[in-house]
Amino acid sequence: MGAYIIRRILQSVIVVLGVIVITFLISRVLGDPVALLLPPEATPEQRAYLAKDLGLDQPLLVQLAVYVGKVIRGDFGQSFRHQESAMRLLLDRIPASLYLSIVATIFSVCIALPLGIISAIKRGTIFDRIGMTLALFGQSIPAFWAGIMMILFFSVKLGWFPPSGYGGPKHVFLPALTLAFFFTAATARLTRSSILDVLDMDYVRYARLKGVPESVVILRHVLRNSFITILNIVALQLGLILGGAVITEFIFSWPGIGRLSLDAIYNRDYPVIQATVVVSAAFFVVINLLVDIIYSATDPRVSRR
Question: Taking a C-beta distance cutoff of 8 angstroms, is the pair 276, 20 a contact?
Answer without folding.
Answer: no
